[in-house]
Design brief:
Elements: H1 4-7, H2 20-23, H3 28-41, E1 52-60, E2 67-74, E3 88-92, H4 93-97, H5 99-102, H6 109-112, H7 132-136, E4 142-146, H8 149-155, H9 160-168, E5 172-175, H10 182-194, E6 200-203, E7 207-212, H11 215-237, H12 253-271, E8 278-282, H13 285-291, H14 296-299, H15 307-313, E9 318-319, H16 329-354, E10 369-372, E11 376-381, H17 384-407, H18 415-422, H19 425-433, E12 444-448, H20 453-464, E13 468-473, H21 476-490, E14 495-499, H22 505-519, E15 524-527, H23 542-570, E16 574-579, H24 592-612, E17 617-624, H25 637-646, H26 653-660, H27 669-680, E18 691-694
Parallel strand pairs: 5-6, 9-10, 12-13, 12-15, 13-14, 15-16, 16-17, 17-18
Antiparallel strand pairs: 1-2, 1-4, 2-3, 4-7, 6-7, 8-11, 10-11
This protein binds nicotinamide-adenine-dinucleotide.
Nicotinamide-adenine-dinucleotide (NAD) binds near residues 453, 474 and 502.
Length: about 700
Amino acid sequence: MADHAIASGLSRLLTSSWDEGLAETLSPQDLLVYRSNLLGADKRITNFGGGNTSSKLGMPDPLTGAPVEVMWVKGSGGDLGSIRLDGFATLDMARFRSVRQAYAGPDMEDDVVALYPHCTFGLNPRAASIDTPLHGLIDYPHVDHVHPDAIIAIAASVDGEAITREIFGDEIGWLPWRRPGFELGLMLERFVRDNPGARGVILGSHGLFTWAHTQRGCYETTVEVINRAITWLAEHEAGKPAFGGPAVEMLAPKQRRATAARLMPILRGLVSEGRAKVGHFDDQAAVLDFVCSRDLAALAPLGTSCPDHFLRTKIRPLVLEIDASRLDGEDLLPTLRQAIAAYRADYLGYYERCRRPDSPPVRDTNPVVILVPGVGMFTFAADKATARIAGEFYVNAINVMRGASAASTYAGLPEQEAFDIEYWLLEEAKLQRLPKGKPLEGRIALVTGGAGGIGLATARRLLGEGACVVICDIDRSALREAETALVKSHGRDRVAAVPVDVTDERTVITLFGEAALAFGGLDILVSNAGIASAAPLEDTSLELWQRNIDILATGYFLVSREAFRLMKAQARGGSIVFIASKNALVASPNASAYCTAKAAEIQLARCLALEGAPHGIRANVVNPDAVLRGSRIWEGEWRAQRAGAYNVAPDDLDEVYRQRSMLKLNVFPEDIAEAVYFFASDLSAKSTGNILNVDAGHAPAFTR
Ligand code: NAD
């Protein structure tokens, strides 16, 4: 078990990163961006997307040039760590102060939100967030609001107010929990007025506000206050085992990952009911300390405290009380199904208990966070980034529970308060405004030969439609290059690369385990890794014959068998697409090994279609022909051979194939990728056992 305070992430002190030399060169607005980025750069100061900053600055009116007091305050959405100036809303303070006249009390708190756009200074389209009044009503030019784990640990302790007084005296005050909005803004205003010596305030179950006359002063107050909380908590944690000490032995790393890879697809299948989800697995020390601990059973049901946390994680996680290492596949599914069903029923109970007459309808009842003693934490969401971030937020919640329960007694937010935030009409409106997901959002694809011409184009096409993609290839350097390019265009979260030789059973099995861990499972397999070879029959060596059979027939068998197993475990169907060849249908002279192996692929796809149909697993074939651009098959010797056969220069081959086609067109990797997308997506939901030729027309390849 890792050392208590280190693993909690609460013991390392922050250092001020303020660079006065740089700060002196910045305009007041850019200084606000600088200060915000410094705060957001350290997750111990604030969680992803959490917290906000503001500065009230003098600006000239664009029409008259007259001075106007303008509040620059982080707008709705975005993250402090990466915010730019366009992430801030701008409000004319004179107009903002008049909102008070329209405010008639807590019952109309949500209504005043619609008035903020009327206070906009300039033509700034950035919407003001619901935290705007918390900044606007504090009578200081610069205000920071952050969610540090160390502060929330105090804010979520039953005696948080007394602890705050003990650590900070009159410097930092305490306000009890209240949902963010105009009323909380008024409470802050009163506090600042009544406590002129205070430099900040801790909000119960929520976070920290600090203020100052200068930007540097505000930033350094935030850092100093967090450090004092960290120091105090470390002193109180010292010598105590985390979460009451271990109750369950953690599995060794290799066994943990193997168990997680086994659990992932089953869990993903169950929680994807209604909508495909992507998974994320985390077994860092802070997580393992919690999931293996004695206090897990008592703490997890109390739920997370900070609203930022549970909006991402749901109020409570699902704790799987199983010995995952001992269950075999047969027992696992019913056990997990039962646990998920119980969670859903529990969540429905919470909704029914807390709903108000105008509450939005119940949302997805499945767990977001699943904790497995001895193994780690699984999180699920509609896309990978959201699943990963939900996991990060739950780690924040773990740190909070650890600090609070070491120093005092942890208290979650009362259920009704949590519900009112989760089903807040303003939150619902935000959800309704979210753009509709792309067709493959939540789906996971694996492309073999993903570093090659057709494979890479296919990976790009599927990523473009929202899928997460695992590319694999035997050529490690080409694979790295392809990965770098895809990460650049589509982000780290949705791309994984695994080196593999599709002819090697062991590495293929490992590949699917890695895929299950990377994203949670598999929905789409594109079996594409291949080679080309040519030789007259008499000159075809057994070695050449075997190489074609190994890569094109056995390789396709091995990857589709593992994909089939994984898809069955998930129990949510799937699509298998084989990239075969025109030569699978039409024999060509001097290519017996290649043509025979490619024909085997088609027959294997038909077998998969037959056996897969009862499980909703479809299998279809795309037959390319003469895809020269981007294909590495067509580099070097093969191109020279083909050019020789047609008696033309290698560079003239494109023209030869164009003229040979019925439509007089060349075929490109993107054309093959388009056909793959059709079979991979629901566009072809009612097609299995089919063949689609993408060859610009070749009469001998007409299927019949
Ligand atoms: P490519 O050479 O650009 O890509 C194939 C990829 O498969 C390469 O990156 C290669 O490293 C990888 N690979 C080879 N052996 C492997 C193994 N044992 N394990 C893992 N990866 C391996 O070629 P391409 O044109 O993109 O071909 C893709 C598929 O399309 C192949 O199956 C090929 O037979 C088929 N095809 C291509 C054409 C064409 O004209 N390009 C025509 C018909 C069929």
